[in-house]
Amino acid sequence: MAGIYVKNLTVSEKSIDLNRHVNNLEYLRWMMEASLEHSIARGWPMERYVSSGSSWVIRSHYIKYLSPAFLGDSISIITWISGVSKKSHPRKYLFWRARDKKILAEAETLWVFVNLATGRPMPIPEELKSAFDIVTAGKDEVLKQAFPNITV
User: Fold this and answer.
1) What 3-state class would DSSP assign to 66?
2) What does pTM read for this prediction?
3) CA-to-CA distance for 98 and 127, rounded, in angstroms?
4) 69 found inside a domain
5) What is the domain count for the chain?
6) Among 47, 49, 52, 63, which is least packed, fewest CB within 10 Å?
């Protein structure tokens, strides 16, 4: 499905904290990376935003940690835009480990579209809105769409 983006990675040593699992800040970093990659995949790299005098800023993050990730784990970060308003949109994330079919974390970020010159919120242009499908499905359906060949 065009509205869902999947970023796959293997947990490296730099992501591990003193508790021998993935540090909380890594989840935020991975969320940012997955969002940027999704935007690029839909035809909106950073250069396009800059040339249009616009960008995105984060108003809020929410992360619910369900199970730890460890060194060497293969993880998929699934992300999608779950709605849109005049100047913002919520983006959701699932962190999923295939080997045990576990959701490791659920997250959501509220992104606000801004004018680069003023830093003030501005309306999201129709050209940008139309580049992304809005996904309203629940997490089980999103997993099925992200991994159609795997029973989740």
Assistant:
1) coil
2) 0.94
3) 35
4) yes
5) 1
6) 47
